[in-house]
Amino acid sequence: MGRYFYIVVWLLLPVLGAGQGKENDSQGSIAGQVEQLTSLASFYHGYARVKKGEKEYYINKQGGKAFDTVVPSANVTLGNKDDIAAYDEFVKSELLPTKVIPFIKDGKWGVMNPRGEVLLQAAYDSVGVDNPYYWKLKKANEISFYLKGGKMLPFFEDVGYLDGNYFDVKQQGKWGIYSFKEQKLVIPAIFDAFDYCGGCGRKPSYVYASHNGKWGILDWNGKELLPFIYEHGHYGMRSDNWVESFTKNGKRLIVHIPTRKEFLADEQDDYPKIVAGLLLFKEIINVAHRQTVKTGNNGSMARYGIGIYGQDGEMVSPAQYEWIDEPNANSYLGYYGPYLLAKADGKMGVVDHSGKWVLPAQYDDVKVYDDYFVARKDNLAILFDKNQKELLQVNNAEITHANEYFYSNGSDGLAVFKVKQRAYYGLYFVDNARYYPPEFYDVDIKAKFDGENRDLIVGEKQGLFTVFDAHGNLLIPGQYNGFSFLESLPDSLAEIVRGKKVGLYNVKSQKEVIPPVYDHFELMGPQHELIMTTKGDYDKPAYEFWNLQGQKIIGKTFTDKDTINTQYCLLKNDQNGYSLFNVETKQVRFLDYAYVWKVGSSRLLFVSDDGRKGKLFDILEDRELGTVYDASQFNFELNGERNTTYITLFPFKNGFAKIVKHGEYGFIDEKGKELLPPKYAKVSDFNGAGLAVVVDARKLQEMGYNNRLWPVNIIDKSGRTLLSEGYVAPDLQFSDFSELFLNDKILLFKMLSHTSELRVGLADSKGQVLLEPIYNDIIPTKNNRLLLLKKGAKFGLATFEGKIIVPVQYANMGLGNGAFYTSSDSVDMFPVPVFNDDKWFYIDETGKKLPLEAANLDDLLY
């Protein structure tokens, strides 16, 4: 009897239908009546697609209409595990999930999550779910926003998102500001438009407003901060005290909000301008002190200077600078801190935001890195700290931060600089004032481990790498072609590479622990305190064992290594034979045998002097066990040729091994004791549930070998038989009997005496009959959730405990669905489609019939 007989119809429903939605009305059928459909399908995440004539829609598990269709999306699929995981992560965050699925029911839109749980009932003309801050809801030509936590705004003519609490809303053709926290308009809807810097790093405390064609600025209480006398364009938007987007009478202005001071922008010049939150302005200054900028109408030379206004709108420095700008402006080089570059008398220095010189204007060029300044004067490069202390100076060199790409985020406290001289790089470590003169071809910053701060400074020269920590301490000298720090190793150790060979280096003692002459190394021992090195190719490996101090703990080299368990390894040396190595005690026990093999046991080995016969060796008790066995199942050179003088031993499985004597099988345990003597015609290995199949030799002879039925019983670990007589196994001459088991359950086959037909039942691991052997077939559904029972031409469902869920009375069952064989969650088992009297209908887990019937079960691809 074949074990792969299927009567079920297989379906595929990849995108539609899911979870336990709340759309549970019973629309589509009248109480007490059965709705007639054209076709139905298996449930998938709480929903099933049905057809009525040419119309398709989806029902919930109560049989009520759930929705007509989902809105197609390449972004998310119902039931997809990855989408569900992404949705769950969004739920934990402050954002709305975008891994959701809009659906349509009777022309109205709703939203469900990838599990199929309804988040938003179908009540809207459209729903937009692409924005993680809000979902846009449209209803009767009005707009609302759905927010985090299931909260909603009232409906308005239109809505704009400002900062999550404040929204610009339109009523009767005018705009106002609505506060979600206060649940009211905080600025009345009397304005023509609003604008806001939503992209600013800091949320502004004000909003741009338009009234009667002019723009001003209001705070969130509607207080006028700037009067409505300006024109406005959406450019140069800010969140501080300055406005750059206003014009007045066609002239561009910069306006300070608190003081209402206006600064007229020169269309022919770059000033005034905002730099680092400060206003830089230009004005004519004393001719005796500053540079010539342009010629006046009378031919005299006009000289200009640059000054600074602070965030408070007050002048912090008069126009005393020839030039001033943000450090490293428009450059990929890093800058961080309250500094500006400035020029005076043709030289460059650094001022802080109060206009105070922190590095006098004496240099040809200056770069700023956090609180450090690199200045160049003639051919001299100088590194200063913020207190003007000179840290380093180098002739004919260029000094830059070791990490040139930190932009405006700062260096995370990494005070390391590289010095380029000709084509070579050196390093200066501020913390310890250590200077390594230029000798490297390149310098890089790396992290010890993925995801950690980059705090290793690496210099490369001719393919050799020198490694420093962030303080300038030498970790690895420039003698190796590669290195890596491993999380499984102590912090003091690093893997080193020379050519293609590896070793270990102690960065604290500055010594090689294991020379880089090996092809591979592996950590061993309960605390990873041992290292096994490998040298040579796969066919001829050489193994050596070390401690973390670089001492060989075994003075020999081994040609083979086999792990027995977490504590023991079997080692082989071509000259000295076999040894047993205890990785916990570090002891080696020589095994005085010509042959030693593993036998599938965590405590036993097979040992032999001649390779044809041998004994079991108990490594825990350090002794041979008494019985001599044929070695044919372990010595492959014998090609399976048995020495029938001795019992043949097979490898252990789950604590027991089969033995054969004179063609009959038995079992021994891991102490070498017979569980059952050799008396069976055939046996299986013990499975993970501690059960094995045995075939009675006498009964097999009585039945005859030609009927292809095996008289079987089941034994447990005590050797006790679990079943009464009369059970058989069909067509299993070349089988290992594994098909008689369903997890820890046993399939029971019996032959009907009057017809010689087979019937199958089910027993538990103790031999207790759960289902009598009266069925033509018992087939587990996907993931072994339930059992499909076939009796004659009828089908039903049962649990693995033998409980009948669906009586065996249906002509067909629609258990199949393509999602059974995809990465998505399993198909819902219930309600299950069943077929009787030329109709398909649903049965739920209580046996209740849903009020729906159809002539067909769909097998369409959706």
Share of helical residues: under 10%
User: What is the terminal separation in angstroms?
Assistant: 35 Å
Instruction: Specify the structural class.
Output: mainly beta
| Biggest sheet features | 16 strands, mixed
Give the overall pLDDT as a whole number. 88
What is the count of β-strands?
Answer: 80
Shape: flat
- Low-confidence segments, ≥5 residues, pLDDT <50? 1-31, 288-300, 817-825
Radius of gyration: 41 Å
Strand content range: over 45%
Structure annotation, total helices: 2
Describe this structure in words.
The protein is mainly β and 862 residues long. The protein contains two helices and 80 strands. The strands form 17 sheets. The chain has a 16-stranded mixed beta sheet that branches. Strands 17, 18, 19, 20, 21, 22, 23 and 24 form an eight-stranded antiparallel beta sheet that branches. Strands 25, 26, 27, 28 and 29 form a five-stranded antiparallel beta sheet that branches. Mean pLDDT is 88; it is low at 1-31, 288-300 and 817-825.
Features of this protein?
mainly beta, flat, disordered N terminus, 862 residues, 16-stranded mixed beta sheet, eight-stranded antiparallel beta sheet, 80 strands
